[in-house]
Amino acid sequence: MSITNHTSKALPENIPPNVITLPQTAQLEALYTIIRDKETSRGDFIFYTDRIIRLLVEEGLNHLPVVPRTVETPTGAKYEGVGFEGRICGVSILRAGEAMEAGLREVCRSVRIGKILIQRDEETTLPKLFYSKFPSDIASRYVLLLDPMLATGGSAMKAVEVLQSEGVPEERIIFINLISSPEGLKKFCERFPSLKIITGWIDEGLNEKAYIIPGLGDFGERRYCQ
Ligand code: URA
Predict the structure, then answer these.
(1) Does 93 sit in the ligand 1 pocket, CB within 6 Å?
(2) What CATH number should be reported for the domain whose range is 19-70+87-224?
């Protein structure tokens, strides 16, 4: 048996350039092993998904542009540092994305958060917008779009379209999720090549019911219902 602090799992090949994964450490894999386990209690599922969400949000903030900012320290010296260029807001895709809001608030105090509800239209089978609420100045903000699972990508792509119709350019959206399918990533990145995706793990694929494999099952069920 060998002991290492890096996971033995390799990232899939041909990941689109605008996809950023968390560092694939053994610690991260241990967290994913817990949340994937069907025997994990709801309390532990919440605790460990929250830990991953925090890492994802921190990584998302690494991709926001900064501008020079000089401050004076209590010693009287000047420090030439940086500050974030613009303001941000979160937008959660209901309902599972709401679970990521607290993680964003922990890192960005009093951050504005919008919401968007997309469901399958029973007639057309296409994703349809049912509800949205955004900060009135969303067009001038960077948007962290929150949804834990990128499976087929249908809802997330619809959410980006809605944000664009509110005046948010693609380049100012960062989509954050815990687990992605390669199929969903490919479709999403072909459609929105300038948008960044921060994902914790890229899984093997989708099953016939569009669940991510190996995945973790239904995120919303496990977080809210067990
Ligand atoms: N949503 C989930 O909660 N799980 C999946 O595997 C896919 C979409």
Answers:
(1) no
(2) 3.40.50.2020
